[in-house]
Design brief:
Structural class: mainly beta
Distance between the termini: 46 Å
Number of helices: 0
Helix content: under 10%
Number of strands: 26
């Protein structure tokens, strides 16, 4: 049976095998893994605040959470006492080699920095007031934001990155073979770097912007393709608006999409 251990940062800090300390506006907690040295999974879901994940040569997950600025003082306002909400409202749960970090509706988190073993698949989901930054990890990664950019550098494996407002910048040093990926934003640019020997089939959709590639590509001469769907109300035909192209011999489908911005497909330098 897999053992589950939970912590609540800013309210209570569990004792036992994990250590925690509070230093001003920042709290730090070290979370052990059930099977150190084996691949891990980090899942983070925040309603507000930025997230920075860094791979390091260790076997534990180290979390540092910074609270939004407040002096923590009770003040009298119009004959009443205003009681400050000075908790982080951040929960951490460890189950085997999976660590989950969640921010509640009352969260006052401004920034979360997490160090993970390099062989960690990262799944990040944020909504407001911060960008996502990931570096130096290997696995299958899923990065999602609403109001913030996404940056993933020195990555190995596969990446799915999606945001509404912000740029998407990804650097893949090594790619998992035969694995589809996608990089999308509504308002922003998409820039992705692949190894020089990369082979893939590209599906690119740009509303207002241009597409550039450092790789030599072969564009599909057929252009837009038609899809046909049969339903209870009849037949539905739709012309796809994607640009289809091939790098090298082709391969897994890699999707790039932005409405207000451009797409740049680059080669990893060095």
């Amino acid at each position: 049976m897999t053992k589950t251990i939970s912590w609540m940062l800013g309210l209570a800090l569990a004792a036992g095998s994990a250590s925690a300390q509070e230093n001003g506006e920042t709290q730090r907690i070290t979370v052990p893994l059930g099977s150190p040295g084996e691949p891990a999974v980090l899942e983070v879901s925040l309603l507000s605040g930025g997230v920075r994940v860094e791979g390091y040569d260790g076997n534990e997950v180290v979390i540092e959470a910074t609270r939004t600025g407040t002096d923590g003082k009770v003040e009298e306002v119009d004959g009443m006492y205003r009681i400050p909400n000075n908790t982080l409202g951040l929960s951490v749960e460890q189950r085997g080699n999976t660590v989950e970090v969640d921010g509640s509706w009352g969260s006052n988190v401004a920034d979360v920095r997490i160090q993970v073993p390099r062989a960690t698949s990262v799944r990040l989901d944020t909504i407001n007031d911060g960008a996502l930054s990931v570096s130096g990890v290997e696995g299958n990664h899923e990065l999602s934001s609403v109001n913030g950019g996404i940056e993933a550098l020195g990555m190995r494996g596969s990446v799915i990155a999606s945001t509404t407002n912000g740029d998407v910048v990804v650097e893949l040093l090594r790619v998992t073979p035969d694995t589809p990926m996608s990089f999308t934003t509504w308002n922003g640019d998409v820039e992705v770097s692949f190894p020089a020997d990369f082979h893939a089939t590209l599906l690119m959709k740009v509303g207002q912007g241009e597409i550039f590639s450092e790789f030599e590509v072969a564009v599909d001469p057929l252009g837009a393709r038609m899809t046909r769907e049969e339903g209870a109300r009849g037949t539905r035909l739709e012309l796809e608006s994607e640009v289809r192209a091939r790098i090298g011999a082709g391969g897994p489908e890699i999707r790039f999409e932005t409405f207000n911005g451009g797409v740049r497909i680059k080669k990893v330098q060095g």
